[in-house]
Design goal:
195 residues; mainly alpha; 0% strand
Length: 195
Amino acid sequence: MAVLTLALVLTGFYLSWRITRLDRLHHRVETSWAALDAALLRRGAAVFALVAADVLDRQASRDLAGAATAARRASPDEREFLESRLSHVVRTELERSDLPVQAVSSVEEITEAAKGVHMARTFHNDAVAETRRARRSRLVRGLYLAGHATLPEFFDMDDHPPRPDGLRYRPAPHPEKGVTGRNAEPDDNGGRTGD
């Protein structure tokens, strides 16, 4: 009798530990998703800030604003695709050799935000993978230890950040030198540097 009682107590402790672990795993998924969501919104805000700075050409600004707006307004079913599309547009527009020097700080901010998205997505998908592994256990499924908790899903998207380090930014005009021959200073040969 004592052995049976001890076995029941140990079994109860073990099941309680498994349930607590599952709760913690699901909480980790919720926390990591909140961090990923915040990172995605931060990246979108950085893109909007670049567009608002009005230093890019009209088409580039329109493409970036459109992709960022679509990603921000995306439904849960569309979000992976639209966030991936934003990643593609960001790389297309920012990995160019003719970006103005005024865009450098904004590009760096977007790049850092994109790296944050990559890191947050890695942590989130790791949490999802661990939770799904725990829930595949026969004991968990047989005794319904996960309760009504939804099986978490991976967030799959293109999260490669732009690579601005290799870019050659277009220099801004010198404030004391115009861009026309009339306003430019003469060079050493008596010519006009702006011609």
